[in-house]
Structures are given as C-alpha cells and as structure tokens.
Amino acid sequence: MNPLLLVTGGSRGIGAATARLAAARGWDVAISYTRDAAAAEAVAADVRAEGRRAWVLPADVADDAQVQAMFARLDREAGVLSGLVNNAGVVDVAARVDEMDIARWQRMFAINVFGTLSCSREAVKRMSTRYSEGGAWAAAGGHRGGAIVNLSSVAARLGAPGQYVDYAAAKGAIDAFTVGLAREVATEGVRVNAVRPGIIDTEIHASGGQADRARRLAPQVPMQRPGSAAEVAAAIVWLLSDEASYTTGALLDVNGGR
Ligand code: NAP
Asked: Which amino acid residue places its CA nearest to atom 46 of ligand 1?
C-alpha cells in the first residue's frame, strides 16, 4: 500500500502541482476543492496515470464540519493518511486596512488559518504515536507518524502593505502555528513544516483582481522572475519525504531571493 497524502485546494496552482509530483514520488493522493470539480477530476486523472490511487473531495476547509466529514470519508475509502498539505488559501482585492471590513477578515482567517488548524487537528489525531495503543485509528494502521506541510507566504515577513495586510497577518499566524505544533508533536512521529512562497505564477492573483501581478512584480524579485507552482511543489514534497526526517518547525522560503 502506498502512503496516503491529502492536499487541500489541490485542483489548481501549487496544490495541483504538489498532487502530481507526490504521485510521481509514490504517494496515493486525495485532493479537496470547493468550486471547480472538473479541474479537481483532471488532477486526479493525472495522479491515476502515475499508477496511484486518487480521491476528489468537495469540502470547504473553513467549515469544521465539512473538514471532519472529509477526513471520515478518507478513513472509510482510502485508509489512514500519513501526509497533509494545508494548501487551500485565498487572497482578496488590494486594499488598505482602513478600507477593509470584518466580513473580509472573517473569510480571510476562516479559510487561511482555521482551515489549516482544523485539518491539522484531524491529521494529528490519526498520525500521532501518542495513541498507538488503543487509538481510534490503530487497527486501520494509524498512529505511525506522518508529515504536515503548511502553505505560508513571504507576505508573513513583508506584510503586504497596500495589498492585503490581512492576508499577511493570516500567514503570520500560520508561521506561529507551524512552529508551535511542530514542537508539540515532535516526539510523536509527526513533523510539521511550512513553505513560504514568494510571487508564484498561479490563478490566485486573478482571484484578487490582479491577473498580471506575478509578471508585474517580477522586477522586485532578485531572480527577476516569478516562480512556478512546480518549484514550490518540489519543496513541499521534499518536506513530506523521509529525506527531511530531521526537519521540523522549519519555515522554508521559496521566493527567488525576495
Ligand atoms: P490558487 O491557484 O488560487 O488555488 C487555490 C486552491 O485552493 C484551489 O484548488 C481552490 O479550489 C482551493 N480553495 C480555495 N478556497 C478553498 C476552501 N475554502 N476550501 C478548500 N479549497 C479551497 O492558489 P495558489 O496560488 O496555488 O496558492 C496555494 C497556496 O499557496 C495558498 O495557501 C496561498 O496563500 C499560498 N501562496 C501562494 C502564492 C502565490 O504567489 N501564488 C504566494 C505565497 C503563498 P476551488 O476554487 O475549487 O475551491
């Protein structure tokens, strides 16, 4: 049986690239999404073309009940996971803080922060060796450790002034959560790390009303170009792998030097 990985928001961009590369490296892969079922199915087809098993799970990570149902379905249909990539994330239109409202902040934190916390909680329950005797997933092969990779952003360090300081604050929370959870479960076979991408050429910029953002900001990057989803996926899949066996609590910048 291949190890099982869940990539939230795996239907496009960095999540899709991660699902494809992980399949090539031997993982069975489940991907979640909220809107575009056809895109998610296309990624799953690529995973299956590598000879791996794939699942497509419609679930909003901001909804704790949907997260729990998603993990329960994986338990039933796929087995116990040993990898989780908390990739689902959103930006919003560029604005100053004094132009933002609470509805925007609630969505920003519900998806980017609470989604990561909910999924991580469910993963740790299944992965942690703390429950190896008599734990709920012991008979199903759980409680044997695992790896979690969170998607933070260079914005956590730079603050994204005039763009989306609320997004930067949410990613700052991801950094603190990554370090804290990594230390909390360090003796329980679970490694927790974050990747902090810089400007990556995906559709997320168009969703914030700036389709040309990656190319426009390229001159600010020491390498003078945006990164690709595949370049971020390479770092994520390394952190998931046994090659990163002594790496936990790390915040790995993948940003062309920015
Ligand atoms: P993207 O192209 O917009 O893809 C986002 C993915 O998340 C899609 O599969 C989307 O599918 C899914 N998604 C959105 N809301 C969701 C929700 N509530 N529940 C479950 N899935 C949801 O984004 P990306 O550029 O690949 O970014 C991926 C991650 O990297 C994000 O956390 C982002 O903050 C981070 N990041 C990106 C960049 C960059 O420059 N691209 C830089 C730094 C950090 P549906 O629309 O079908 O739901």
From this structure: 35
Instruction: Round the average pLDDT of the chain to a whole number and report it.
Output: 97
Q: Catalytic pick from 33, 131, 164, 167? A: 167
Closest to 191 (Cα-Cα) out of 252, 130, 124: 124
pLDDT (tens digit per residue) in 180-210: 999 999 999 999 999 999 999 999 999 999 9
Mutating to test ligand 1, I would choose from 202, 220, 225, 252 the residue with most ligand atoms within 8 A of its C-beta, which is 202
Q: Compute the distance between CA of residue 126 and CA of residue 144 in angstroms, rounded to an integer.
A: 8
Q: What is the CATH number of the domain that holds 105?
A: 3.40.50.720
- Mean pLDDT in residue range 80-98: 98
Catalytic residue flag (residue 164): no
What pLDDT digit, counting tens, does each position of 149-162 carry? 999 999 999 999 99
Query: How many domains does the structure of the chain reveal?
Result: 1
Structural domain boundaries enclosing 70: 4-254
pTM equals 0.98
